[in-house]
Amino acid sequence: MTKDNVNSVLSKNYYTASLFENGDAKNISKDSIAHEMLADGKAISLFASSNDIVNSGLANTLPLEELKKTFYYFIYNLYSNQNNGESRTDSFFHATKTFEEETLKHQDLKWEPNYQVNLINMISLQNLGVFEY
Length: 133
Prior knowledge:
Blueprint: H1 6-9, E1 15-18, H2 33-39, E2 43-49, H3 64-67, H4 72-83, H5 88-104, H6 113-124, E3 125-129
Parallel strand pairs: 1-2
Antiparallel strand pairs: 2-3
Helix pairs in contact: 4-5, 5-6
């Protein structure tokens, strides 16, 4: 999907989405797909990056212990929390907190690319739209 066709493809029902591409919500300008989905479409909640998400060294087929050092650990926790009954908002908060705590445990890796990339990725992710309570 692109900014130009997203609202025709997703036009039947209201929806939520997770956008993990570079800058999907950058500046939340009219040129971003996030703006198009929220302002002119039926999106009610989006997770999107306000900056470039760097995927340096990501591997999503690792054992859980190794996965903890990558951005996929955040994504794993995000969906695992929802599967266990948390709302999208709570799941996003708890997955972010878990991932940041795990990243900070690896201070020995602070000069490794994934350590810095993980922190930048988490700062860049935004929870846009409706927060459910």
